[in-house]
């Protein structure tokens, strides 16, 4: 098995999980006819340590898309879908995913804990998404999991505006879960905002829509690098 999702993210100079999502929640076509292999190559060239693939129907995703992405990259891949049963975990693993989304807003506590345990047993990293303190307090211990604050609301189908301050407010509580990898996800468009989240202490960011819309990924990445000098922990040795 390749590098684990958490290891790849925490070792990265630019810890941005870049997401392939066919459509925005409003129905905007984000792939614009570009082949999946081209989108993956673009994210790899921009230095993504991990990729995310949305397989949820709301966003035009399918499990075929996940299979296609894992066929054309060695990077660890997160499957973003509304996972509710262990059968879906096995499918994720068989299609080559390294991590799976578990959404605290949609899963009862006991089910979430059971799915996280099962995912770990299958060699998958639970990527647990939260939106408030109550959800965070209900989490199982998260030493082997990513805990991600979603800046948008999945119950509103991700349609509203993003509240990036939510990530800043919730970071101490997220750290309290024991996760080695706090992540901020959704609505991160401006590289200066991305830099602010990393400087605040986030170990990773998840960015989809903006990077799929952007004509130039290198300028976004350069702006992020300029606003957020790489930490010594993430600098390659030698
Ligand atoms: O495209 P954005 O705003 O950069 O957001 C990415 C990601 O966080 C978003 O696609 C997402 C967050 N939670 C989800 C659950 C299922 C599918 C997709 C998602």
What does this structure look like?
The protein has ten helices and eight strands. With 238 residues, it is of the alpha/beta class. An eight-stranded parallel beta barrel has the order 1-2-3-4-5-6-7-8, surrounded by seven helices. It has one domain: Alpha-Beta Barrel (TIM Barrel). The longest helix has 13 residues. α8 packs across α10. Bound molecules: indole-3-glycerol phosphate. Indole-3-glycerol phosphate binds next to β8 and α9.
CATH topology title:
TIM Barrel
Mean pLDDT: 93
User: Low-confidence parts, pLDDT < 50 over ≥5 residues?
Assistant: none
Biggest β-sheet: count, sense, barrel? 8 strands, parallel, barrel
Q: Please state the overall shape, judged from the principal axes of the Cα atoms.
A: globular
Q: Supply the number of helical segments.
A: 10
Strand order, largest beta sheet: 1-2-3-4-5-6-7-8
Q: In the residues, how many domains can be counted?
A: 1
How large a portion of the residues is in β-strands, by DSSP E? Answer: 15-25%
Report the bound ligands by name, code or SMILES: indole-3-glycerol phosphate
Radius of gyration: 16 Å
At the fourth level of CATH, the homologous superfamily is Aldolase class I
Q: From N to C, what is the helix and strand string? A: HEHEHEHEHEHEHEHEHH
| CATH architecture tag | Alpha-Beta Barrel
**Proportion of residues in helical segments:** 25-40%
Judged by helices, strands and strand pairing, the structural class is alpha/beta
N- to C-terminal separation? 26 Å
């Amino acid at each position: 098995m390749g590098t684990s999702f958490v290891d790849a993210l925490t070792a990265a100079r630019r810890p941005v999980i870049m997401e392939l999502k066919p459509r925005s929640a409003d129905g905007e076509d984000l792939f614009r006819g570009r082949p999946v292999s081209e989108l993956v190559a673009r994210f790899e060239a921009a230095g993504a340590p991990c990729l995310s693939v949305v397989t949820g129907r709301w966003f035009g995703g399918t499990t075929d898309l996940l299979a296609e992405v894992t066929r054309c990259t060695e990077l660890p891949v997160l499957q973003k879908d509304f996972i509710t049963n262990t059968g879906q975990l096995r499918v994720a693993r068989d299609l080559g995913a390294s991590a799976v989304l578990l959404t605290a807003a949609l899963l009862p506590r006991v089910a979430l804990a059971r799915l996280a345990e099962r995912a770990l047993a299958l060699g998958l990293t639970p990527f647990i998404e939260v939106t408030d303190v109550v959800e965070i307090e209900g989490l199982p211990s998260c030493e082997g999991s990513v805990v991600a604050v979603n800046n948008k609301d999945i119950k509103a189908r991700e349609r509203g505006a993003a509240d990036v301050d939510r990530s800043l407010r919730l970071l101490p509580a997220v750290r309290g879960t024991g996760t080695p990898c706090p992540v901020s996800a959704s609505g991160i468009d401006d590289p200066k905002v991305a830099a602010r989240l990393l400087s605040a202490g986030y170990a990773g960011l998840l960015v989809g829509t903006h990077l799929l819309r952007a004509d130039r990924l290198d300028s976004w990445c350069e702006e992020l690098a300029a606003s957020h000098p790489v930490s010594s922990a993430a600098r390659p040795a030698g």
